[in-house]
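#lab-general

N.A. 3:47 PM
ok so I finally got the sequence cleaned up, no stray characters, all 136 residues accounted for. can someone with queue access submit it? mine expired

B.Y. 3:52 PM
send it over

N.A. 3:53 PM
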Amino acid sequence: MKIIHYAVVAVLVLGALYYLWMKPPSLKPMADRRAAEALALVQTHRALGYPTILQAMTEHVRSMSERNRVARLGEWRVKQLEGDLYEVRIQLRDQGVTGQWFEREFIWHADLLLKKVNAASLPADGVTPKEPDAAP
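B.Y. 4:20 PM
back already:
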């Protein structure tokens, strides 16, 4: 009876260790504090028609589901370009009416020093409001 008890405990411990080792990146905290700040800056930046970019992306997926079509968001990825400039990317896959898949990559540049977000790809340009031109 004790052998069964120890076997069950061992399986649970090994399962927990395996889960911690293999858990998806979205559940892992970002190791680089500045990369996490850049991601938050982009995700909370104002979007066209929505309060934030994150809400715009998730609302698109939800609205596609309501129309019985599939849309999938990839993982948010952050890369330091130089100094305070970071690049934030996410891929969106949409299933068209005919069943064909379309993939778009949204790219933003986040400047931590200026606390500014700029669209760096055509798809990102479609959800990011334009900054008003500075008066001469």
